[in-house]
Amino acid sequence: MSAKKLLAIINGEIHTAQTKEPLRGTILVQDGKIAAIGAVNLPPEADVIDGAGAAIYPGFIDPHTHLGVSEQGLGWEGRDYNEMTDPVTAHLRALDAINPEEDGYREAVEAGITTVMCAPGSANILGGSTVVLKTGGGLLHQRVLRANAGIKAALGENPKRVYSGAKKAPSTRMASAAILREALVAAQNYQNKLERAGGDADKLPPRDLKAEALLPVLKKEVPLRIHAHRADDIATALRIAKEFEINLTLEHASEAHFLLDQVAQSGFPAIVGPSLGTPGKVETQKKTLDTVKILSEAGVTVALTTDHPVLNIYQLLHAAAAVVRETGMDEYDVLRLITINAAQILGVDQRVGSIEVGKDADLVIIEGHPFDYLSRVLYTIIDGQVIYPQQA
To answer: Do residues 123 and 32 both lie within one domain?
Structure first.
């Protein structure tokens, strides 16, 4: 495909993720954006992809990964997602550790996954800021959709395991919650000092990067993205969110259906998974695909995750198919879990997640249904550029 600014995809079945019934017609792409959908007069200068016999979907989205900060096939050399020397590292940024050439990005593109959230790991109570980016299409900084999509936090087994082995806190769930509260209080105190200084350089406190990183959370500009599998950890997360009047996303949320009323009333979304595979630790023993259906039916905004590299990034589609098969959820509703719902949770739905005029032209053309294991991605398009198959 040439580097022209106009691209037309014709004759395909268009699944917008906004309406259940597919559309027929043409998608016209101009300067990386969707310019028109439906009956379109083809400009003679446009490149054309004939989608006859294929289906067109918005690029799929995985809203919780460690893509590029945990490089598959490598040991410590590519293990950059957990700074296991301090339980509070809110000032770290996943963006600073991403290797965009990691094989996982290629595999994402080949599976039609065009947007991911990349996060620090869950060894620390506060791990650092997360970033939303495209899986291909330019230099790393050009692919960033949202440089700070929230601060990664973690409760449950992981911080306990890491720091009890080092003979320091937290070694209990009590300490985990206390350390999180201490960090939020320190950020509140820092915020108060900044406000009292009123911009006067002589009165400003010394810069505190850890506290500074939490200010967007206190201001509700970004959520605390909190790893919490078990119901008691989810309850603690909800309690702390209420105490400090902050927003959360419940990451993994394996037992969120046990607290259905509380989770639904909170209004916080849930990123559920990884739902495939055997439980790897005590806090995931009760994970079930039914969580997705139960939360969705209660009005919770839900998305699916692979938690790459826990599951390989391409298994996002396999997980979605398993939800349909095992729970009986409607295919359209499950499609939304890996498109527009994920985009909304990440705060990037104004640009990606559905096929609409004005949005980024992130599209997947598939031979077969995306939830069919035997289906084949024909083209992955990001910002109007054909990324897969790689063009000569």
So the answer is: no
Beta-strand pair 33-38/23-30: antiparallel
Domain with residue 262: its CATH number is: 3.20.20.140
On whether both 329 and 386 belong to a single domain, the answer is no
Three-class SS of 321-358: HHHHHHHCCCHHHHHHHCCHHHHHHHCCCCCCCCCCCC
Total number of domains in the chain: 2
Amino acid symbol at 348: V
The letter for the amino acid at 387 is I
Same domain, 291 and 380: no
Predicted TM-score of the model (pTM): 0.96
Inform me whether the pLDDT recorded for 259 exceeds 90: yes
Report the pLDDT value the prediction gives residue 391, as an integer from 0 to 100. Answer: 67
Query: Can you name the residues that pair with 151 across neighbouring β-strands?
Result: 129, 224
Q: What is the pLDDT of residues 342-362, one digit of tens each?
A: 999 999 999 999 999 999 999
- DSSP string of 172-241, one letter each residue: SHHHHHHHHHHHHHHHHHHHHHHHHHTT-TTTPPPP-HHHHHHHHHHTTSS-EEEEE-SHHHHHHHHHHH
Same-domain status, 4 and 69: no
Q: Looking at residue 78, what is its pLDDT? A: 76
* pLDDT reading at 228 higher than 60: yes
What's phi and psi for 18, nearest 5 deg?
Answer: -115, -25
Mean pLDDT (the chain) is: 95
| Same domain as 362, residue 309 | no
pLDDT score of 3 more than 90:
no
Same domain, 131 and 267: yes
Structure-token pair, residue 80: 């950059």
- Give me the CATH number covering residue 15: 2.30.40.10
Owning domain of residue 311: 60-352
Which residues contact residue 7 at a Cβ distance below 8 angstroms, ignoring those fewer than 6 apart?
A: 1, 28, 29, 30, 46, 47, 48, 49, 361, 381, 384, 386
- Side chain identity at 255, as an amino acid letter? E
pLDDT at residue 5 in the model: 83
Name the band, by pLDDT with cuts 50, 70 and 90, for residue 75: confident
